[in-house]
Amino acid sequence: MSHARTGDGAAASHVDPRRWWALVVIALAQLMVVLDATIVNIALPSAQRDLGMSDGNRQWVITAYTLAFGGLLLLGGRISDLIGRKRSFLIGLVGFAVASAIGGAASGPGMLFAARALQGVFAAVLAPSALSLLTTTFTDPRERGKAFGIYGALAGSGSAIGFIVGGVLTEYLNWRWCLYVNVPIAAVAVLGALALLHDRPGTAGARLDVPGVVLGCGGLVALVYGFSEAEPRGWTDPLVLALFAAAAVLLAAFVGWQTRTPSPLLPLHIVRDRDRAGCFLTMMLAVIGMFGLFLFMTYYLQVILGYSPVRTGLAFLPLTVAIVIGSTQISARLLQHAPPRLLMVPGMVLAAGGMVVLTRITVDSAYLSEVLPALLLMGLGMGLTFMPVFATATAGVAPRDSGVTSATVNTSQQVGGSIGTALLNTIATTSSAAYVKAHLADGAGRGAVVREGVVHGYVVAIWVAAGVMLLAGVVAGVMVTARAPKRGVASEVVG
């Protein structure tokens, strides 16, 4: 342990002059991973027609990625601790690019699904190593705030940027470029990483906790898969219930095993820390609400208001700009002087307020007066929240655990996304069906009633999302008690 402290002290005294260029490389890789959760959403109708996918199977283009990514993140984080962050970062980048090229060249649905799963596997190696490289590259509190501001902005806005890029590529090239685009991005990031990133080697003599991998990753896969299947099948379907039961058993067994094994996959002191646990939970709840917004707004703008893919993507641009401003200009500056919860709580209240504004949408709403204000409030709120979550969750972690801590932040994000998509979509569809059934009995025109029913379903789900975001604010206020960071991370390393 003393060796780790000394190493960190040396790192603090020797500041890398090219660290901001290193941040560009890390940010590029992170953006690519987050983009890929949504970039194919807008391309999905074209890919479905091209490859002859059934309606029942098309969700696997999204699910295969989130399942592999969310399920294997803990393993990816531990691998980066064992073999070194730079090496796992490079492996993740190259593998992600190869998987993207296979997906772009897919000749049938099965090949595309497999490529998306492979992308998820390498994303699970790439994302934790990117975040832990960031924590070890920036040790000065002021610079750390700026670096995490940029990282938080990308984590929050990457999904929205995915819609814009996906819309442009689908409309002006074709859907395959939504996957091919990762190859040049990864190539630039690999060259940058080789030239700019430094890292201490992996932990010598450490062993991988194989039973922990099987139990932990198996439990997360069952959980994410259960939520993704709840959407098409319904919550009471035997498969869905079996998956949730399996997830509960496997995750309970995982926690039990982690208390006994000498080299745990997830050292439990990481989760027992009150601030860190509060950050993980806040992140998960915030993302549940945010993914609901992305899902409904994409369909609302394209199907109800008749926007083209490019116009839909551009409609998300103010949200992205607001997240970047909230994260880099407000949060990054204030976190040096204010406790994290004084940013996270108002952030979640703002985001929930944006959701409440959005509940006023109708079948013929005006974008400028009813959609834009909601997106701006949401973006500022997310920017205020994400940056302190990343900075607080990864502060003061022993170097040997930084990869797995970063992975746990990413896991809470992925699980939140899966829950949000399934839960809010199910609420929206059941509310829509009930509305249509009630109003068709009045003898109204079917087309108009169905459109009104769809929007009614969105509004009900958006109210739920607003409630979840307020809950995230309560969690942050009660659990995250950390003070404003006064010192560099080098002096905060804990065992």
From TrEMBL:
The keyword rRNA-binding does not apply. It comes from the Bacteria. Pfam families: MFS_1. Residues 22-484 form the Major facilitator superfamily (MFS) profile domain. One of its GO terms (biological process) is response to antibiotic. The chain crosses the membrane at residues 20-40, 60-77, 89-107, 113-136, 148-168, 174-196, 208-227, 239-257, 278-301, 313-335, 342-363, 375-398, 419-438, 458-480. It is a multi-pass membrane protein. One of its GO terms (cellular component) is plasma membrane. It is found in: Cell membrane. Coiled coil: none annotated. Keywords: Antibiotic resistance, Cell membrane, Membrane, Transmembrane, Transmembrane helix, Transport. SUPFAM superfamilies: MFS general substrate transporter. GO terms for molecular function: transmembrane transporter activity. InterPro entries: EmrB-like, MFS, MFS_dom, MFS_trans_sf, Sugar_transporter_CS. The keyword Hydrolase does not apply. This is MFS transporter. It comes from Streptomyces griseoviridis.
